Amino acid sequence: MSDQKLRELLRQLHDELERTKSLDPKGLELLSQINADIRKLLDPDQENPKTLMDRLQSAIDHFEVEHPAVTAALSQILNALSNAGI
């Protein structure tokens, strides 16, 4: 997957988070960790996609009930990374 595609998905997630009124502390922590993992993934000198994939799944599980739009955005990122073989 190109960096541009990943950046577009991240922008969509960011936009969705801006529209989300309330996130609990655990959700904010998960999203912060995912952001750091994605930045590492975009850095060609770093590799640790397993952590990112696990965190994305944890975030999806966490947001699934109360924030379906955030869940959908996270799922798109997870699917895109999986399709790219990460």
Explain what the structure shows:
- The longest helix is centred in the middle third of the chain and has 18 residues.
- The N and C termini lie close together (9 Å).
- The mean pLDDT is 81.
- The chain has one domain.
- It is mainly alpha-helical and 86 residues long.
- The protein has 4 helices and no strands.
Short description:
Helix content is 77%, strand content 0%. The chain is mainly α and 86 residues long.
In percent, how helical is the residue content? over 70%
Given helix and strand content, the structural type is: mainly alpha
What are the segments in which pLDDT stays under 50 over at least 5 consecutive residues?
none
The SSE string, one letter per element, is HHHH
Q: DSSP strand (E) fraction? A: under 5%
- What is the general shape? globular
Number of helices: 4
Rg over CA atoms, rounded to whole Å, is: 12 Å
Count of beta strands:
0
Average pLDDT taken over every residue: 81
> Separation of termini?
9 Å
Summed up, the domain count is 1
Main pleated-sheet profile: none
